[in-house]
Design goal:
The structure is a homodimer. Chain A is α+β, with helices and mostly antiparallel strands. Chain A is built from eleven helices and 31 strands. Chain A folds into three domains: about 5-265, Spore Coat Polysaccharide Biosynthesis Protein SpsA, Chain A; about 275-340, no CATH class; about 360-460, Sandwich (Jelly Rolls), CATH 2.60.120.
C-alpha cells in the first residue's frame, strides 16, 4: 500500500490580499514559517511508513512555474496537473485518481487543500494512519476537525466519536447559525468539515462512476487525451464537459461507505488575516510583528512590513500589511471584509489584485522601481542557468546596467558578457536576449524609454519555456 | 506706517511625522491647500492697506533653500534670516526688529509662527487692523484666540474683552488642568495664547533693552556683525551669547504696555494629525482621503497616500499617512504620541526622521529608487538653469540615462548634451558635472556601482551654491 498527497491548489486567497494575489495566491506564500503553505502541505506526510516521495498537485496554468519551482526547492517529486478551468473539487480529484490508478489502483489518495495550516503534525499523521486502515478496506474517509469555537463560517460533519477511530458519518450539515454552532460545540457530535479526504484511487472512481457518471466519463476522457511534458495537461474540452461539484455533494453525502476520522491537530484554514494572526506567535501584548516595524502603545496588532518602515501608535486589534505596492489596514473583527476592497479594485481594473510589484517568471523575476510617462526603471533578476526569450520590442529602447553577478547578452549578431558596472543599450527593433550561464543570480537595472511600455510589446522569436509567439 | 510679517519658521513638527521631517518640517508642507503653511502665512496680510510686499522669515540654515524657493514661487520678496541656533522666540524677533529698525524704526512687526492655520483670513485681518492702532500708539499687542474647547495643551491669556478692541492683559497663565480649562472656556476671560504678536520694531527693542538687556545687546551685536548675501547671516558668537527666552516671558509678562486683541478666525496650531483632520473637509462619514485610497466601512478616518495604494477596512477614528519610505497608522486619540515613535527612530539613528526619500537640493532633487549592497538607483531632477557642482567620487561609478528633458554633461575635458534615451558613464575619479541650460526639468536615472555609496563620497571642485570643499 502506498499513500500519496493530492494537493488542491486552485484557490486565490482573496481575503489575504495584499499578500495574496490571484497570480501568486495564499498557498504559494510562506505565511507561517520558512516554507510556503504548498510546501508544508506536500511535506505533511513525511516520516510516515507508507509515504512515497511522490505527490500530485492540481493547480491552474498561471501558477505552474511557481508550483514547480517551490516543489523543486524542497526536492519533492510531483506530478503537476493543470486544470483547464476550475470545476470544483470532485472533478479535480477524479483527474488525480485516474492518473494514480494507471500505476496502481490501490494507491491511497490523501486529498488536502494547499492552503491550510496543521500545527500538530504528529496528531495529523496519527489520524491519517487510522484513516488508512479504513481506506484500505474500501471506505471513503473524511477528516472531521474537533471544533474549538462555535464557528459559523464552516460546514460540519455529524458523527458519534469512538476514541480516535473511524466512525460512520451520520450527516453533513451546512454552515449553522450562531446558536446551532454553539450547540454543536458543546454536543460533541459535530466536527468541522475540513475538506481533507482519504480513499483508494479505484474506490473513489467506482463511487464516482455510480454516483456521478457524467463527471466520471468526462474526467476519464480528459485524462486519456492528456498531453504530458513538464506538466500534465488533461484534455480541455472533455474536462469542461464535466459538471461542477464538490467531493462532499458528488460523493460523500451519497455513498454508504463514508467514514469520519476525528482530528485535533491545530488545524486552521487561515481564512483571513485575523485567522492567520491566531496561528502565529505573539508577544505579551498579543502583538505579532514582521519586518521593519515600530510600535507604541499597541495591543493585539498583527503588522507585516515587506519593503518599508511601518509604524503604529495606540492601536488595538488591527492588522497592517505592507507590500511593495500596497498597504492594507483592517480592524481584526472586519477581517473577512478585505474581499470588499479586492472587489472594488477589480471593478477598477487595478493590477494590484493580480500581480505583485515583483513579478515571477520561469527565468527569475522583475520588479518595477519607477514607472512614468515615457520611461520605466526595472530590476531584473536572472537565475543561474536561465535564458530569457530571444525577443524584440517595437516601441521601447532598453538600457541595461549589470549591478550584481554576470550576464551573457545577445544583441543582433553579437554575443558578449557583462559584469558588474558594465552596461549596454538595446535600440528599438534590436533582437536581444539575456542569459545567465554563470553560478550566481544576475541583477540588471533596466531603464526603458519609449512611447509605449506595456509588457505586451514583445515579439518572442525563441523561448526555452514554450512561450514563442505569445506576449505573456 | 508699514506692517511686515515676521515669520518664525524654526519648528520641526515632530508630531506630523512622517509627512514632516526635521529637514523638511511641517511649515514647509502644503497641509491644508495648494500652498505650504509658510506660503499661507506670508500671504495672510495680502489685501491690507498698510501691507508692503516685504516679509522676514527667521529659519535655520538647513531649510534656507526650501524657504527661499517657496517664497520665490509665490513672488514674495523676503529677507531670510538664518538663526545660528534656536534661542527661543524673543532673540529671534530681536534680530528682525534690529534689521527692520535700520530702515524705519516705526515699522510694525506682525510676529507669526510659520505653522499655524487661519481659516477666516478676513477675521484675522480685522483683528490685526485693531492691533495696528494700539501698536502705532506704542503698545505691545498679543492676539488671544477665543477658545472653542477646554484645551489643556495651550497657555492662556487673561483679559476682559470689550467687543473686539485691544484690552489690557491681566495675566498670562500656564497650561491648565481639565477643570480649570473648562472654567476658562465658560468664563469668557481667558484666551488661547497664540504666539502671534504685533508691535513697532523700536517699541520692542526699547522694551527688550529695559527688560532683557543681555539679550538686547547680544542680538544688537549679532546684527551689526552680520554678513548679507542671498541670506542674512547674523553673527553666530554674539547671538549664541544671548539668553534663551520666549517673547512672553522676556517681554510681555513684564511690560506695562501689553494689550490683547481677541481673535476668532478659525485658528489651529495643527499640532497633531488629529488637529489637522479637524481643519480639513471630510465626507458624510467624517472621512478625509488624499491620494490613491480605497476604504470600506470606515468612519472618522484621515488617510493620506503619497506614493502607493492604501486601503482601509472597518476602521474608526484612525489616521494613516503613507510616504515614499514610511507608513504611520495612529489612533486619533493617541495622535500626540507620534512623537514617541520619532524618539524611537532617532534613538536607532534612522534617517526617516530627518529626510524624505526625495531629497531637495538647490539644483532640484534626488530620490533613491533602490539601495542595495554594491549598487543604488536614483532619479535626479535638475531644474532649468541649475548647475550641479563640478565633482568626483572616490568609490563609485555612475551610469546616467536621461529619461525626460535634456542635460549638459561635463566629463573630464568633454562637454556634451544628452537627450531622452541617451546615456553616459562616469568612471570612478572622473571629474563631472550636470547642468540644465534648457527650458524644462531634466530627469536622469542614475545607477551607482561601488563599494561605498554614501552621499559624503564627493569632492566638490566648484559649486554655484557656495558648497565647495564640503560634502553636504
Amino acid at each position: 500500500m502506498t499513500i500519496i498527497p493530492v494537493i488542491l491548489s486552485g484557490g486565490s486567497g482573496t481575503r489575504l490580499w495584499p499578500a495574496s494575489r490571484s497570480m501568486y495566491p495564499k498557498q504559494l506564500l510562506p505565511l507561517t514559517g520558512d516554507n510556503t503553505m504548498l510546501q508544508q502541505t506536500a511535506q505533511r506526510l513525511n516520516g510516515m511508513a507508507d509515504k512515497t516521495n511522490d505527490c500530485m498537485v492540481i493547480c491552474n496554468e498561471a501558477h505552474r512555474f511557481l508550483v514547480a519551482e517551490q516543489l523543486r526547492a524542497i526536492e519533492q517529486s510531483a506530478q503537476v496537473v493543470l486544470e483547464p478551468e476550475g470545476r470544483n473539487t470532485a472533478p479535480a480529484v477524479a483527474l488525480a485518481a485516474f492518473l494514480a490508478a494507471e500505476t496502481d489502483p490501490d494507491t491511497l489518495l490523501l486529498v488536502m487543500p494547499a492552503d491550510h495550516v496543521i500545527d500538530n503534525v504528529a496528531a495529523f499523521q496519527a489520524a491519517v494512519a487510522i484513516g488508512c486502515e479504513a481506506a484500505t478496506d474500501g471506505k471513503l474517509v473524511t477528516f472531521g476537525i474537533v471544533p474549538t469555537r462555535p464557528e459559523t463560517g464552516f460546514g460540519y460533519v455529524q458523527a458519534t466519536p469512538d476514541g480516535g477511530s473511524a466512525v460512520a458519518v451520520k450527516s453533513f450539515v451546512e454552515k449553522p447559525d450562531r446558536a446551532t454552532a454553539e450547540a454543536y460545540v458543546s454536543g460533541g457530535e459535530h466536527f468541522w468539515n475540513s475538506g481533507m479526504f482519504l480513499f483508494g484511487a479505484q474506490t473513489y472512481l467506482n463511487a464516482l462512476e455510480k454516483l456521478a457518471p457524467d463527471m466520471f466519463s468526462a474526467c476519464k476522457e480528459s485524462i486519456r487525451n492528456r498531453s504530458d511534458g513538464d506538466f500534465v495537461r488533461p484534455d480541455s474540452d472533455s474536462f469542461l464537459s464535466s459538471p461542477k461539484d464538490s467531493i462532499d455533494y458528488a460523493v460523500m453525502e451519497k455513498t454508504d461507505d463514508a467514514l469520519m476520522v476525528p482530528m485535533d491537530a491545530g488545524w486552521s484554514d487561515v481564512g483571513s488575516w485575523a485567522a492567520l494572526h491566531d496561528v502565529r506567535d505573539s508577544d505579551g501584548d498579543g502583538n505579532t510583528i514582521d519586518g521593519d516595524v515600530y510600535t507604541h502603545d499597541c495591543k493585539g496588532v498583527f503588522i507585516q512590513a515587506e519593503s518599508r518602515l511601518v509604524t503604529a501608535v495606540g492601536l488595538e486589534d488591527v492588522v497592517i500589511v505592507e507590500t511593495k505596492d500596497s498597504t492594507l489596514v483592517v480592524s481584526k473583527d472586519k477581517a473577512q471584509d478585505v474581499k470588499a476592497i479586492v472587489d472594488q479594485l477589480n471593478e477598477q481594473g487595478r493590477a494590484e489584485t493580480n500581480l505583485h510589484r515583483q513579478v515571477f517568471r520561469p527565468w527569475g523575476s522583475y520588479d518595477s522601481l519607477e514607472n512614468q510617462e515615457g520611461f520605466q526603471v526595472k530590476r531584473l533578476v536572472v537565475k543561474p542557468g536561465a535564458i530569457l526569450s530571444l525577443q524584440k520590442h517595437a516601441h521601447r529602447a532598453e538600457h541595461w546596467v549589470v549591478v550584481q553577478g554576470k550576464a551573457r547578452i545577445t544583441k543582433n549578431e553579437e554575443e558578449f558578457d557583462l559584469g558588474v558596472n558594465e552596461s549596454t543599450y538595446i535600440a528599438i527593433g534590436d533582437v536581444h536576449r539575456i542569459a545567465n550561464p554563470f553560478d550566481a543570480d544576475a541583477h540588471i537595472i533596466e531603464v526603458q524609454c519609449g512611447d509605449y511600455l506595456g509588457e505586451d510589446d514583445i515579439v518572442r522569436l525563441e523561448d526555452n519555456y514554450g512561450r514563442e509567439g505569445t506576449n505573456t
